[in-house]
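Feature request disguised as a bug report, sorry. It would help if multi-protein outputs had a clear separator. Right now it looks like this:
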Amino acid sequence: MAALRPTGGMPPAGRRAFLADLSPAYFGLVMATGIVSLGAGMMGLPWVARLLFLLNVAQYGVLCVLYVLRACRHPRRFFGDMVDHLKGPGYFTTVAGTGILASQFIVQTDSVRVGFVLWAVAAALWFALTYTIFTAFTVKRDKPTLDQGISGAWLLAVVATQSLAVSSALLAARIGQPFRLELNLMALSMWLWGGMLYIWMMSLIFYRYVFFRFSPGDLAPPYWINMGAMAISTLAGSLLILNAPQAPYLVSLLPFLKGFTVFYWATGTWWIPMLLLLGIWRYVFQRFPFQYDPLYWGAVFPLGMYAACTWQMDHAMGFGFLAALPQGFLYVALLAWGLTFAGMARRIVRILRTPARA
């Protein structure tokens, strides 16, 4: 599980080493910033939402450049990580990050054309990565054992799938025919497939939890995706419920949509106390060092997504009594985002200063 453990202090290496070692999961930064921005916009903090949106556009552009440079200068590392059981699923953050940025353009700027282009890029990345990674995992000769090969990062495949469901539903709500019905069908299909994928993967992850030795280093931040995958599934289901008047086949499925949306939300809610207890065990009782790692964005994202999905579900289901819950989680997500961003900034400064010290 070493690939998912925090790296600790920055070794005496320069910018070239940073590029070679760039985490495949670094687009989690875009995922986390994007959903916190969307949540802030939902809950009456427009200036926070706007600031984070502009920052996210810049972050997305920088990461695209870095990933392309890594693929060109370090192709063995770049593509080798893609077929590694622990690192490979991290590439699904590129899909989820692109899909969430598409949702930001659609919701926060009404730029349907830009949103559509990003949605198309996310769909192409989803198709390429899904069938590349899982085919490679299936046919490769040397495979790790279950306890050494699976982690919560695998659920990034679910998040990527549901991000397409969310962006498809948002596009469908803002365009006319001939594509409205087709986009709603794609959103529905991705929502259903993401749920099935979660059941498959979560069964293996939970089995690994309770039947194999579990050390503090194994509890990497992506385990928060256990909750985040259900949260984004809830958000997608809520949007499908709101889109039902636009598509007759969604109207006929409304009881199913509402039931499974609440089911996803309840499952995600169950995970929160469990993950908090495991975090206390890791950092308090086992005294595991708390230092910045890119994987911590995989813990910030679920907090923001839970706030956003709870707000949207409360609206779609007409509950009216859950308003305080998403507000509280939004502020927790903003705090977690700020602390993680400060850690990232400090790490970048150290990297930039390394050649001078050498």
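(second protein starts here, but nothing in the output says so)
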Amino acid sequence: MDNKKQFIVNLVASLINFVVNIGIGFAITPFIVGRVGAEAYGFVGLANNMVGYASLFTIALNSVAGRFITVAYHQGDKGKADRYFSSTLSANVVLVIVLSLVAVPLILNLNHVIKISPHLVGDVKWLFFFVYLNFVVSALSTVLSVATFVKNKLYLSNLANIAYSIVRIVVMVACFAVFPTYVLFVGLATCAGTIVMALLNYAYTRRLTPELRFSKSGVSWRVTWEMLSSGIWNTVVKLQQILQDGLSLLIANLAVSPLHMGYLSIAQVVPNALSSLMGTISGLFSPEQTRFFAQGKPDELFRELVSSMRITGFFTGVIFVTLLVNGEAFISLWQPGQDVHMIYILMMLTMAGFFFSGVATTLQGVPLLVNRLRNYSLAWLACGVASLILTLVGVKLTHWGIYAVCAVPQLVGIVANLTFVPVYAAWCLKIKQHKFYLIYLQYSVATTLAFVLSYATSLLLPRQHVGWAGLIAECAITACITCIVNVAVLLGRRERSVLVSKIIRRK
């Protein structure tokens, strides 16, 4: 299969996976909120965020393992790739054991750490336990996903993700239907889905890269240290993400109220899905980018980066404009009985932070690609510290409350993605900065024009629709307008060939 056809297969699988996940998220969120309440649902996001803090200790290794294994594999050194594989798996086992010694006592005493209504204490503790168990399974199985990356068969990973989503929804609905209502079922279902995904990734590893096998002789602490010394800067980036975004629900819980934390958690469902989509689509280009870097082909690498920026921006723009124009109507149907206006404002404030991420996500991966993470990571850490300080100031000294918790981190993210992210990426690749800013300009013009045309069109449409059918029709019109504008303004000849010619002609 040639590269263009391989990309189309990977892209289609990614979009199917996104649609499945976002569809399940839309369907299951009101289902859960309607049964356990907005306050209890807020602890789902908080559990994921707090358990995610543990990834500070695993991300240094897991974030770079795929890169080291892939580079060694494409350079023909299969023995070295196997050492990276075995060492990563062994180190993750050790880290999980150590982290569990801290996590288990913390969960047992959780009600002394965060605010939990008395009737929810036991339920929330079990929720945190299953979310942590899910983290353990993910940490131990992360290296198994490298096979699809090495062979550029990312559609298989997306199939595993779809299986995860299906298992998750089936287990969750079955538990809510058979047993009394508990929010812990969300964590239990997620854990079950992750186990299935890990088994599928194990099968892919055996089939695609049979030479990658765990062996005691392949475990090397020197190799482990080589990866850690590179990936430690990704730990710094993760710390920044926690300071900037990962503490938002915790701050809302402690400084505002558990109910407002619940509203913020609901508002983050769509932006989190968009963030996942951006990372997934940008990641479709990573295997080729890594191969071109390993083979010393800078021109081909630059073309892949530009294509990734444009295509990731294409889909981000469609979702951003569609929600900006139709978001409040969507919230009123999706979360009836809740504070619709507050949730809409919180959702769009969060979405605003992802606006420039549409093109910046690709460039955020360049320092890892070229293994120059130190200065980049420290700059992001400074952003995280500034974000945390400004958020606390906003909450304590103003009346903005939950809006400050939501808006300040996004504002800091916008500034970072507009300034040092493209500058540092250009420096790493030794190219002129304006080449990346040109894509930023095209993206901004395309999205702004699409919004103006879509909003004007919405004013001309009859506003008497009631229900999902009318909303879906309006969203489809907005999406079509945005797609047309993006194809004309944002995409280049190469991207149009991939997204239009190949799909229409089915070549």
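Even a blank line would do. Unrelated, but nice: The CA atoms of residues 176 and 250 lie 27 Å apart.
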